[in-house]
Design a protein that fits this description.
This protein has 312 residues and is an alpha+beta fold. The chain is 32% helix and 34% strand. The longest helix is centred in the middle third of the chain and has 29 residues. The protein is elongated and about 115 Å long. 23% of the residues are buried.
């Protein structure tokens, strides 16, 4: 009877000793995911606390921008640098020191790595329990990284709107320019539109799309205003008007927004950022297509505008 008991005790001792070899003194994990996004955009949503709530798939404490929850674990954001976010993860009686970092792996590509580390218990039973819990947290981290990747690879999340590559369909435009001391009112804009339409009708041509407009500040501390209408054929321009020819089939970035001039201005900023993020060059000035008649519709929140930015 003594021999089997000694064998059992020996096996238990061997098992306990094995725990210390299999499960290290410091339990470390590293989960990696590659994301089709620029490092600048990844940094915006990863190393700043506030944007985490935009992509986080679990719960978020709205009164504390640093506290997040997912699958029974809490994630407390600590401090960040230009390339990493430090945090602690708590699940039950375990607490993990953690950090999320990113690095560029290619043009428009990033690799995000999520590290965790914890000092394991000297008690073999607790050590095993801790290891199991950490494995569960690691599995959840895979889910969190996948959620972040999905968010970052949806352009509307990053730029606030859908931006797509389109082609110039109507290359002939009749245009008119003016200068205003302040941002042009709908009355000024549609006065120019009306004059252009009269010329088009007089010469038997057709307008083939909504009016185009470009407004920018000039050296006179006012605004240079260009209004144009795409037409179906060449005509002879009248007083204070010119025929401009765009490149038929040329590439343009296109986005559509609803709102007033501040919304449109922000849309141009986002399209410009998209252009820069993707290494695109613009050969010509951007413009907006006035889908909604701003003179007839007084409510600016209902104005629909299509943004175009030529690129190559």
């Amino acid at each position: 009877m003594k021999k089997p008991a000694l064998i059992t005790i020996g096996l238990l001792l061997l098992a306990f000793i094995s725990v210390y070899y299999i499960i290290p003194q410091k339990i470390k994990t590293a989960r990696v995911i590659e994301i089709d996004a620029t490092d600048i955009n990844v940094a915006r949503f990863l190393v700043n606390k506030k944007p985490w709530s935009k992509w986080w798939p679990g719960q978020h404490n709205t009164s504390d921008s640093s506290m997040f929850m997912y699958q029974g674990a809490s994630y407390h954001l600590l401090e960040s640098t230009n390339s990493e976010m430090r945090l602690t993860i708590r699940r039950g009686n375990i607490e993990l020191n953690s950090q999320v970092i990113y690095a560029t792996t290619g043009e428009g590509m990033c690799e995000v790595t999520w590290f965790t580390e914890m000092q394991s218990s000297t008690n073999p039973f607790l050590r095993i329990a801790q290891y199991i819990k950490i494995k569960r947290v690691t599995k959840n981290i895979d889910t969190l990284l996948t959620a972040f990747k999905r968010f970052m690879q949806t352009e509307k999340n990053v730029y606030g709107m859908n931006i797509k590559l389109a082609k110039i369909k109507n290359p002939i435009v009749l245009a008119s320019t003016t200068h205003t001391a302040s941002y042009p009112t709908p009355t000024i804009i549609y006065s120019l539109v009306s004059d252009l339409k009269k010329q088009i009708i007089t010469q038997g041509a057709l307008a083939v799309d909504s009016p185009m407009m470009n407004v920018h500040k000039d050296e006179k501390n006012g605004f240079a205003v260009m209004v144009a209408i795409p037409i179906n054929r060449q005509i002879t321009p009248g007083t204070n008007t010119v025929i401009n020819r765009l490149v038929k089939g040329g590439n343009v970035l296109e986005a559509e927004v609803t709102g007033g001039k501040n919304t449109v201005a922000n849309a141009f900023r986002q399209v410009k950022r998209y252009q820069k993020d993707h290494g695109l060059i613009s050969p010509a000035m951007p413009y907006e297509l006035l889908i909604t008649n701003r003179l007839a519709e007084k409510d600016t929140t209902k104005w629909t505008t299509r943004i175009y930015w030529p690129i190559f």
